[in-house]
Design brief:
Organism: Ameiurus melas
Number of domains: 1
CATH topology: Rossmann fold
CATH architecture: 3-Layer(aba) Sandwich
Radius of gyration: 18 Å
Family: Belongs to the peptidase C26 family.
Enzyme class: hydrolase
Number of helices: 11
Protein name: folate gamma-glutamyl hydrolase
EC number: 3.4.19.9
């Protein structure tokens, strides 16, 4: 684990301590970007989408959301980066190599590393496809293998490091016990990164702390990570679905499952509160917010109850 010079703490821990010790301003109006992705069969007005559950997920913990459109220039993404307080790479079916989703994710990942290295706090989250994208961006290699996890809820196998992790250290003990013993985390992915391949890659091993693993009965795979030195996080499972998606019977909706949604959302939104990025003007902020778009009910024909579509 890489430490800050002259201390025994990581960059992320050092930034947290500096904010606490110096009375650093906390942002009580965090705005988080959610990355869009192209639709399988584009039609006029429906060339890209964001599942509404990601928006509700972040809003439930006190954040506002800005859709991050695909196929913009690096300059446009850089300007937006300086205006928002974090970004979420959602699940989906986009290519993590050649899509507009992959290009945008790569730019924001690079900007986040540069900013955090300079003390400019900016958190990044990847869910499912977003998690897979992060492993590729960090390692520079495609390390995924196929698993039988395309529609199942699982308990988490926590590692020893999870107890003192930034992500889980403030979770109630009873909820941690439920997560470890009950199938509360929804999985809808066909590809995973095996624990052996993850730990066998030096870049991934040095960059991320593994917080949990899972298995499909044959392959043990990494399911939750956080950066050692950077506020970069990933889950192979979907914390947003428990409270906001009802299209599949295997999505858990128990009290413990819904509490999981809100504690995960609260953690990431609180990370975004440490970022002091702002839009140049109130008008530009208002024009960028997701409130300018209306979600469409898609639950009858999609795995999402509601979906935002974009040109």
């Amino acid at each position: 684990m890489r430490k800050c010079a002259g201390s025994g703490r990581s960059v992320s821990q050092e930034l947290d301590a500096e904010q606490q010790d110096s009375g650093h301003k906390i942002n009580d109006s965090p705005i988080i970007g959610v990355l869009a992705q192209g639709v399988y069969s584009p039609t006029p007005g429906k060339n890209a989408y964001i599942a509404a559950s990601y928006v509700k997920y972040l809003e439930s913990a006190g954040a506002r959301v800005v859709p991050v459109m695909v196929n913009k220039t690096e300059e446009e993404y850089t300007i937006l980066f300086k205006s928002i307080n974090g970004i979420l790479f959602p699940g989906g079916g986009a290519s993590i190599f050649s899509s507009g989703y992959a290009k945008a994710a790569g730019i924001f990942y690079k900007l986040a590393l540069e900013a955090n290295s300079k003390g400019d706090y900016f958190p990044v989250w990847g869910t499912c496809l977003g998690f897979e994208q992060l492993t590729l961006l960090t390692s520079g290699k495609y390390l995924l293998s196929q698993t039988n996890t395309s529609g199942v809820a699982l308990p988490l196998s926590f590692t020893k490091e999870s107890k003192d992790s930034r992500m889980f250290k403030d979770f109630p003990e009873d909820l941690m016990a439920s997560l470890a013993n009950e199938p509360l985390t929804e999985n809808s992915h066909q590809w995973s990164i095996a624990t052996e391949r993850f730990t066998g890659n030096e870049k991934l091993k040095k960059f991320y702390r593994i917080l949990s693993t899972n298995t499909d009965g044959q392959t043990e795979f990494v399911s939750t990570v956080e950066g050692y030195d950077f506020p970069i996080y990933g889950t192979q499972w979907h914390p947003e679905k428990n409270a906001f998606e009802w299209t599949n019977a295997y999505i858990p909706h128990s009290t413990a499952a819904v509490r999981t949604t809100f504690y995960m959302a609260l953690f990431f939104v609180n990370e975004a509160r440490k970022s002091l990025h702002t839009f140049p003007s109130q008008k530009e902020e208002q024009n960028a917010l997701i409130y300018n778009y209306q979600p469409t009910y898609t639950g009858k024909k999609s795995s999402f109850e509601q979906t935002y579509y974009f040109d």
